[in-house]
Design brief:
Blueprint (H helix, E strand, L loop, with lengths): L5 H17 L7 H7 L22 E4 L2 E3 L2 H11 L6 E5 L5 H9 L2 E6 L2 H13 L5 E5 L12 E6 L8 H6 E13 L2 E10 L2 E10 L20
Length: 227
C-alpha cells in the first residue's frame, strides 16, 4: 500500500473539515466552502501544532492570541456575504487565516493588527501563498482605517463591548459588519447592517473571542466595562 505523504494527509483532513465541521453545521455558501477547502490552515500555525490544523477548535498563535476554529471562520465569512465587488476591512489580522479567506472572496482586504509581530508573520504567509490583494496596517483597529476610507464589509475578529464608532462610520450604507459583542466570558456574534436611516442588528450565536484592545474597545486589564 502506498504511504500517504504529509501534504496529501493535510489536504485530506482539509476536505474532511469542510464536510464534517462546516457542511454538517449548515454552512452552505459554495464559494465559502470552496475557499475553506483551498486555503491551507496549517500554514498559519506553529509547525508543532500542524497535526491539529483541522481540529474543531481554536489554536494558539502566540502573544496571547488564537486562530479561530474553522467553523467560526466559515460562519463569520458566510454571514458577511462577501463578493468580488467588496472592499473589506478586517480588525485583528492575527495569523492571517481569516484575511486569506476574505482575500480570495473579495476585491481588496484592508487589515489592521495592533501587534506588529503578528502582522509581519501574516504578511510573510500571504506572500508565500501569492495572495496580493491585501493592505496591512499596524495600530489600533478600533479607530478604523487611517485615511477614513469607507468599506462594503467590516469584520472584527475580537470581542468588543459595542460596535466601535469609527468602524460604524467607515461602513458604507448597505454594507454589513460581523462582530462579537460582550464581556470576556459572555459574547454574542452579531451581524450589523447599515441602512440610510440607521443600523439593523441580528444575533447569530454565542461565541468566545479574545478582547478587542483599543481606544473604542477594552483596555488590557478591562473587566468587561466600556472605556
Amino acid at each position: 500500500m502506498q504511504q500517504i505523504n504529509e501534504k496529501d494527509k493535510l489536504a485530506l483532513q482539509r476536505r474532511q473539515m469542510v464536510q464534517m465541521q462546516l457542511i454538517t453545521r449548515g454552512i452552505s455558501d459554495q464559494s465559502v466552502l470552496a475557499v475553506m477547502g483551498e486555503i491551507p490552515r496549517e500554514k498559519f500555525i506553529s509547525a508543532l501544532l500542524q497535526s491539529q490544523a483541522y481540529d474543531d477548535n481554536p489554536l494558539p498563535i502566540g502573544d496571547g492570541q488564537t486562530i479561530s476554529q474553522p467553523y467560526i471562520v466559515a460562519l463569520m465569512t458566510e454571514e458577511l456575504r462577501v463578493n468580488k465587488k467588496c472592499d473589506i476591512l478586517e480588525i485583528g489580522t492575527g495569523s492571517g487565516y481569516q484575511t486569506a479567506i476574505l482575500a480570495k472572496l473579495g476585491r481588496q482586504v484592508y487589515t489592521i493588527e495592533r501587534l506588529e509581530s503578528q502582522s509581519l508573520n501574516a504578511q510573510l504567509i500571504l506572500k508565500e501563498l501569492n495572495i496580493t490583494n491585501v493592505d496591512f496596517q499596524v495600530g489600533d483597529g478600533t479607530c478604523g482605517w487611517s485615511d477614513g476610507k469607507e468599506f462594503d464589509r467590516i469584520i472584527i475578529t475580537a470581542a468588543a463591548p459595542y460596535m466601535p464608532e469609527p468602524l460604524a462610520k467607515q461602513l458604507k450604507v448597505g454594507g454589513f459588519a460581523v462582530i462579537p459583542i460582550g464581556a470576556e466570558f459572555a459574547q454574542e456574534l452579531m451581524l450589523i447592517e447599515k441602512k440610510a436611516d440607521g443600523f439593523k442588528s441580528k444575533a447569530i450565536c454565542g461565541c468566545r473571542f479574545v478582547k478587542l484592545i483599543g481606544k473604542f474597545g477594552y483596555t488590557e486589564k478591562d473587566d468587561g466595562k466600556r472605556i
